[in-house]
Design goal:
Layout lengths: L1 H10 L4 E5 L7 E4 H17 L9 E5 L4 H12 L3 E5 L5 H10 L4 E4 L2 H12 L8 E4 L5 H9 L3 E4 H10 L12 E7 L7 E6 H15 L6 H4 L7 E4 L1 H14 L3 H19 L8 H13 L6 E4 L6 H11 L2 E6 L9 E2 L12 E2 L4 E5 L12 E7 L6 E2 L3 H7 L6 E9 L5 E6 L4 E2 L5 E2 L1 H8 L5 E7 L7 E7 L1 H10 L6 H5 L2 H17 L8 E6 L19 H7 L1 H12 L1
Parallel strand pairs: 3-4, 3-5, 5-6, 6-7, 10-11, 11-12, 23-24
Antiparallel strand pairs: 1-2, 8-9, 9-17, 12-13, 13-14, 15-16, 16-18, 18-19, 20-21, 22-23
Length: 567
């Protein structure tokens, strides 16, 4: 990736590289040469502070997206070091775990508040190896003194770069097989796992994406003369919001008919391979939504979670640009399949990228067989990661002896050669914003709530929140209801909305105390009066929930919960 950046410097003629701005202010730009120089200065400063120019040297980056993040990343690559992103949603304990796992002695932070989080961990003896914090933003002497008390030096980014400028070292470019970045997945249970990605992994994946879209991007250089984005990566949740805004704008019957007619006309063009935003329908109906995205978007890529076919179809017509759907995971450097330019169909994630091959492996206990073009998605190629950092057991679970990465997703080959994701091998799924959910973990927390005897947590990849089915504990229910002033027969109590609200609030309280994140909390519940049983086919002989059967059994109630949320 060091070489890829240097190529960018060369072909751009030292053009603008990183742009940033304050609210309502014009963009300011750093040129490629400025970024390259600052990466060398910071990298040399890290070496002066005792780091080794080696892929065994890990540097933590604890910051939001900004130019200094990229400069810090490329400081690592310039001297063969490894970037390790840290982020707030991991939680303080997980951040300490990662710093220790990676033997990280230097962390680059954006704000003093993040440095405080690290120093509090130092105070508690959780990260004894941390020696230096480099801060992008201004900080006061009090923070520096607090760091000194814990044996941690606090430096400004400017000071670190100045150190490097005065002790400049020649770049030590990495080899393709060297580690570039370790991405710790948030993990659904236990500690996060550090996916080790090499320079070859990332470059192979990027090159495969460019190869798949090269016919569409030949004219992008003209568009890049203006600031307006031409390529736009997105998650389904954002696209859902655009879709909802368009639907809500068509409030009266005439507007709805006009919108439907305009979409149909645009989709006719899309099916013929015509992509434009200057038709009469664009000017009359879609100009406003196009302008909210800058009006120059040529390519959109949606990933991280499935997108509804109806949303994808409407936006392809409305936005007048190629919208691709991608599928993959961190362990294959992001993507492994990608929809083909010109393919206007929906309900699949495209064909394998040119950098990898994919096979479907039998999952007999779930009745998926490769002979039926169904099975677990397995990936092989130069984009497949090296393994999990210092975790040979988890690595062996993910990559088999022949080098195939087992994704845990169940796929189906479609007649046109594309892949459709139809199930998950383990009971883990994603919500619409791409967050992984481990329902059993959540259920085990919720049954700590006194009025709850059994609970089934349900989510869908096209929805952004969880719902649940709760069987109340009959021994506790009467007292619980009496405290709320609820009277009547058992049937009346079970149907009481005040009771449901109180049970839900208690579950959320228990979940919050146990450290559940907001997206892991159920937003609504259905109260069911009878226990789930083996005889009903809802539990296994060992009393584990049969999730597929429970989803089918309560399908009507679950659909009603989601419908009520939309209202």
């Amino acid at each position: 990736m060091y070489e890829a950046f240097q190529r960018g410097l060369h072909v751009s003629g030292n053009g603008p590289c990183l742009g940033y701005r304050k609210p309502k202010q014009p963009y300011q730009w750093l040129t490629y040469k400025q970024v390259s120089d600052r990466a060398e200065y910071l990298g040399s400063g890290l070496l002066f502070k005792g780091c080794k120019p080696s892929p065994d040297q890990f540097i933590g980056i604890f910051a939001q997206n900004r130019p200094e993040w990229i400069i810090s990343e490329y400081a690592c690559y310039t001297y063969s070091m490894v970037a390790v992103p840290l982020y707030d949603t991991l939680g303080s304990d997980a951040i300490a775990f990662i710093i220790n796992k990676g033997d990280i002695s230097i962390v680059i932070c954006d704000k003093p508040e993040k440095a405080q989080v690290l120093l509090e961990n130092c105070e508690q003896g959780k990260i004894p190896g941390l020696q230096t914090i480099i801060l992008m933003d201004l900080f006061d002497d009090e923070l520096k003194d607090k760091g000194a008390k814990e044996g941690v030096e606090i430096l400004s980014l400017q000071e670190a770069e100045e150190l490097g400028r005065n002790n400049l070292r020649e770049p030590v470019p990495p080899k393709p097989e060297d580690l570039s970045i370790v991405c710790f997945t948030s993990g659904t249970t236990g500690n996060p796992k550090g996916a080790m990605l090499t320079h070859e992994n990332v470059v192979a994946n990027t090159a495969a994406f460019l190869k798949s879209t090269e016919v569409n991007i030949r004219l992008l250089t003209d568009d890049m003369k203006t600031l307006k984005p031409t390529m736009f990566p997105a998650v389904p949740r954002l696209l859902n919001r655009i879709y909802d805004q368009m639907q809500s704008a068509a409030q009266n019957p005439l507007k709805r008919v006009l919108l439907s007619f305009a979409i149909a006309r645009k989709l006719d063009e899309v099916k013929k391979g015509i992509l434009r935003n200057d038709s009469i329908w664009d000017k009359m109906i879609f100009k406003k939504v196009q302008e909210t995205m800058g009006g120059q978007v040529r390519i959109m890529v949606t990933a991280a979670a499935p997108i509804s076919p109806s949303v994808l179809t409407l936006l392809r017509g409305a936005l007048g640009c190629q919208i691709f759907e991608a599928y993959g995971q961190t362990e294959c450097a992001a993507g492994c399949t990608f929809t083909v330019p010109g393919d206007s169909t929906t309900g699949h994630v495209g064909a394998p990228l040119p950098c990898n091959i994919i096979k479907l492996e039998d999952v007999a206990d779930m009745n998926y067989f490769s002979s039926n073009n169904e099975g677990e998605v397995c990936i092989k190629g130069p984009n497949v990661f090296k393994g999990y950092l210092k975790d040979p057991e988890k690595t062996a679970e993910a990559i088999d002896k022949d080098g195939w990465l087992h994704t845990g997703d169940i796929g189906k080959w479609m007649p046109n050669g594309t892949l459709k994701i139809i199930d998950r091998k383990k009971n883990i799924f994603k919500l619409a914003q791409g967050e992984y959910i481990a329902p059993e973990k959540i259920e085990n927390i919720y049954i700590r709530s006194a009025p709850v005897a059994q609970v089934f947590v349900h989510g869908e990849s096209l929805k952004s929140s969880l719902v649940g089915v709760v069987v109340p504990n009959p021994e506790v229910l009467a007292k619980f209801a009496a405290k709320l002033g609820i009277k009547g027969s058992s049937e009346e109590i079970y149907k009481n909305s005040v009771l449901k609200k109180a049970i839900l609030e208690d579950m959320v309280r228990v979940g919050r105390e146990a450290g559940l994140k907001s997206f892991e909390q159920v937003k609504d519940i259905y109260i069911h009066p009878k226990m789930f049983t083996i005889e009903q086919g809802l539990l296994t002989p060992t009393l584990k929930a049969k999730r597929t059967e429970l989803s089918k059994y309560f399908q009507t109630q679950l659909e009603a919960l989601y419908a009520n949320m939309q209202e």
